[in-house]
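Example record

One chain of 197 residues, shown exactly as stored in the release files.
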Amino acid sequence: MSGLVRYRVDPQASRFTVRAFAGGPLSAVGHNPTFVVRDFRGEVEYDPDEPGASSLRLVIGAASLAVTDNVSDKDRREIEQTTREQVLETGRYAEISYDCPASRLTASGPMQLQLAGDLTLHGVTRPQTVSARVYLMGGILRGQGEASVRQADFDIRPVSVAGGMLKVKDELKVAFDIVARAVKDEAKLTFDIVARK
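Predicted structure tokens for this chain:
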């Protein structure tokens, strides 16, 4: 366990997206909106010698999802408002979180991890498996991967318009490229400063 290092997610250097897909008879005229998450934070504890001893916690501000597609300002505002108010209900469920303790993370190859964590979304917590490729570069840890999330699993009713002729499919695709930076032992640093005095 001596190789365990704590990292803090750097949102400015990271990217987290969610993609929805149009369905129904009119799906050909709909588009598949992609959202970027603008507010998220997290910490990783990672041991390169024993990846299974690692853990992850990530928290997302549910109201921070913003449309990245090239659509009109009117459509952008309407999609984002509908997502906040009708889909995620951010007034009631302000945060989305993903927790993966050390006992539920396994290495499936060199720098390839399988996370069996808990996703809390829309007030519902369910198991969510995520595969990630991990890269270490000095004091920087980078994780990349994708996952599929079913809205129905979290009591979310997919949005539909035109009397159900155009609606969003249940499955969402989540993609991430997360950069985290090593955190120095803050407790030890405080002790050293006091000791010098």
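Notes: The first strand starts at residue 5 and ends at 9.
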